[in-house]
Amino acid sequence: MKTSRRPIQTALAVLAAAAVSAGAVAVPTFARPASHATIRTAATTTACASGWGSLPEAGNRAGMGEGSLTNVRAGRHACYDRLVVDISSHGTSYSIRYVPAVSMDGSGDPVPLRGGAKLRIIVSPPDYDVNSGQSTYSPANRRELVNVTGYRTLRQVAHAGSFEGQTTLGVGVRARLPFRTFTLAGPGTGSRLVIDIAHRW
């Protein structure tokens, strides 16, 4: 009696196809690693824990009338907004504190400032050369020294006068937020007073 081999071959083919399908399902799926952007965001969030405070800060006096104020600048950073005061000499004295209101030097008139809190900055050099009387800083708009549109913390930076060897600035801040202050040497023979105001507590 002659036995047909075709049904057996067909059955083996079906079993082989099933095995391939099962193998395909069994292939492990590996999770994709977190993106670099996610890692950077987490690191930035951790780095924003500043430990700063909101109490007054002051620096040592380098000498009454030494140097002059030459510019006021601002910049945005991941955790804070930065204000920079450029001075033509090394070192300066300064006093920075939150106040109920900022007043003009000499007249005492109030300086209107946007924001929920007001920061008063007093630096020892005036904004003019003490020998020639020539102005060393002449902003186009004394009520808007820098454009802080879109900043998270800064709301306004205003000039409040230069009187008796010192210059006063009024800073409108979103709220009473922590800040830090320090000085940097340069460029050249000049120096910079830096005020960083945090975006949050």
In short:
The chain has 201 residues and is an alpha+beta fold.
Please tag this protein with its features:
single chain, 201 residues, alpha+beta, Immunoglobulin-like, five-stranded antiparallel sheet, four-stranded antiparallel sheet, 16% helix, globular
What is the level 1 CATH name of the domain at 60-198? Answer: Mainly Beta
DSSP summary: helix tally: 2
**Strands, total number:** 9
* Average pLDDT taken over every residue: 82
Written overview of the protein:
The chain has 201 residues and is an alpha+beta fold. It has a domain at 60-198: Immunoglobulin-like, CATH 2.60.40. The chain has two helices and nine strands; from the N terminus they run ααβββββββββ. The protein has helices at 6-26, 36-47, and strands at 57-59, 69-76, 80-87, 94-99, 117-123, 154-163, 166-173, 179-185, 191-198. The strands form two sheets. A five-stranded antiparallel beta sheet has the order 1-4-5-7-6, with no helix packed on it. The longest helix is centred in the N-terminal third of the chain and has 21 residues, at 6-26. Residues 1-44 have low confidence and may be disordered.
